[in-house]
Design a protein that fits this description.
By secondary structure, the chain is an alpha+beta fold. It folds into two domains: about 240 residues, Enolpyruvate transferase domain (UDP-n-acetylglucosamine1-carboxyvinyl-transferase, Chain, Alpha-beta prism); about 210 residues, UDP-n-acetylglucosamine1-carboxyvinyl-transferase, Chain, CATH 3.65.10. The strands form six sheets. It has a four-stranded mixed beta sheet with strand order 21-22-1-23. Strand 16 and strand 17 form a beta hairpin. Helix 4 packs parallel to helix 5. Bound molecules: shikimate-3-phosphate (S3P). The site of shikimate-3-phosphate has 10 residues, from helix 5.
């Protein structure tokens, strides 16, 4: 019934970055209805990057019109690429070819977006011009050595701040990069993608081995644009012998945005939600696996493939969840979903233990500490550990005032916690919900969440 699916499409709107937004959620309620959440953030970034480097005109539909993806779009405009949109999720990119980018007139400001900064640092290392990459306070405190160290091994010259953070001053080394083999010490799709993009400009072969599977949208989309990337077990290989030919990209809905409603409809009694056209790439579906292990009732319907990526409708109904030991192999496959999974754990009977997730400490905020602090304020027995969390769930979630620390996924997770709280929850510092999911409040209230903002 696509005609009856509620979704929100907005034209580009300017968002005031200095705005402070507070969310307040009234307790209880259920979630019911059908929605389509906005486009996948990872794929939206990559569609702009690869569309810009392609020969010909690339049409993107389902593009995420949110601050992070717009940071990437504006960066490519600043490097001379003509890009129309986004209008109702449609973007038209007039590709300039692999060697057609121009020096930007000023530093590229990438806001809150780690994906923009890490992928661009690889792509820009081999250009015939210098660039400076900057970002907001959170982005400029995140670790960048994970990309600048292997890029230096390829011959890149990137000056960081003393502790390895941005601003990054990238000296363009066109024709001077050398392919390397890199065994990644951490499972990171951003590091893998950064090196593959640098490898498009490096002499010889560049190969990257990952210690555990991570999202493979870069490899899939490069192949979709006709650029050869070989995949052999946990290793991806690329060379400078390829070109990108313009393509049509249909970006599915973001499973990381859908995750808030997968948890919300699971924990709230009498809920029944269908999420349409969600990307279910197996490198992204850890949240479904973890919730099912906890006893969630999630059906994957109408599975199909759209432009090289698997897509489905997800139907989720209330269930009584139980605590589990989260298998470590699922951690990279659900890396962005842990804030809301901690809310599921708080509502689950028994103990949930997460280990092997130290990466959560260097996301948009320290997601282990910030979630533990907020859950404790709400009376939940949540104990942070060095690499995860132990939550004894099943008690009640109280009311109170929590801080999101400017982290979009923390803000949305505590909003969902309201469904099982026994009083209102106030969440401070929520403006950054606009980085990934500006329609969150409208879609959540449409389904039944009593969420206001001021
Ligand atoms: C992303 C990779 C992940 C994820 C981020 C998006 C990407 O980061 O957390 O939100 O688009 O490649 P890491 O590679 O640092 O794990």
């Amino acid at each position: 019934m696509p005609g009856s699916v509620f979704s929100i499409n907005k034209k580009t709107k300017k968002i005031n970055m200095s705005q402070t937004i507070t969310f307040q959620v009234q307790p209880g309620g259920s979630l019911r209805g059908e929605i389509r959440v906005p486009g996948d953030k990872s794929m939206s970034h990559r569609s702009i990057m690869l569309g810009s480097l392609a020969e010909g005109v690339t049409h993107v539909t389902g593009f995420l019109n949110a601050e992070d993806a717009i940071s990437t779009l504006e960066a490519f405009r600043a490097m001379g690429v003509e890009i129309e949109g986004p209008v109702n999720g449609e973007v038209t990119i007039h590709g300039v070819g692999k060697h057609g980018l121009k020096a930007p007139a000023k530093p590229l400001y990438l806001g809150n977006s780690g994906t923009s900064m890490r992928l661009l640092s690889g792509l820009l290392a081999g250009q015939p011009f210098d660039t400076v990459l900057t970002g907001d306070k959170s982005l400029e405190s995140r670790p960048m050595k994970r990309v600048t160290v292997p890029l230096a091994q390829m011959g890149a010259e990137i000056i960081t701040q003393e502790n390895g953070t941005a601003p990054l001053h990238i000296k363009g080394k066109a024709g001077k990069l050398q392919g390397i083999h890199y065994d990644m010490p951490i499972a990171s799709a951003q590091v893998k993608s950064c090196l593959l993009l640098a490898g498009m400009y490096a002499e010889g072969e560049t190969s990257v081995t990952e210690p555990a599977p991570t999202r493979d949208h870069t490899e899939r989309m490069l192949n979709g644009f006709g650029y050869p990337v070989q995949r052999e077990g946990s290793t991806a290989r690329i060379s400078n012998q390829g070109k990108l030919t313009a393509a049509r990209i249909d970006v599915p809905s973001d499973i990381s945005s859908a995750a808030f409603f997968l948890v919300g409809a699971s924990i709230a009694p009498d809920s029944d939600v269908t999420l349409r056209h969600v990307g279910i790439n197996p490198t992204r579906t850890g949240v479904i696996d973890i919730l099912r292990l906890m006893g969630a009732n999630i059906e994957v319907l109408n599975e199909r493939e759209v432009g090289g990526e698997p897509v489905a409708d997800l139907r989720v109904r209330s269930a009584s969840l139980k605590g589990i030991n989260i298998p470590e192999h699922l951690v990279p496959l659900a890396i962005d979903e842990f804030p809301v999974l901690f809310v599921a754990a708080a509502c689950a009977e028994g103990q949930t233990v997460l280990t092997g997730a130290e990466e959560l400490r260097v996301k948009e905020s320290d997601r282990i500490q910030v979630m533990a602090d907020g859950l404790q304020i709400l009376g939940v027995d949540a104990q942070p550990t060095k690499d995860g969390m132990v939550i004894n769930g099943g008690g009640h979630i109280g009311s109170g005032e929590v801080e999101s620390h400017g982290d979009h996924r923390i803000a949305m997770s505590f909003s969902i916690a309201g469904l099982r709280a026994n009083g209102p929850i106030t969440i401070r510092d929520c403006a950054n919900v606009n980085t990934s999911f500006p329609e969150f409040r409208a879609l959540a209230t449409h389904l039944g969440l009593a969420l206001t903002s001021f």
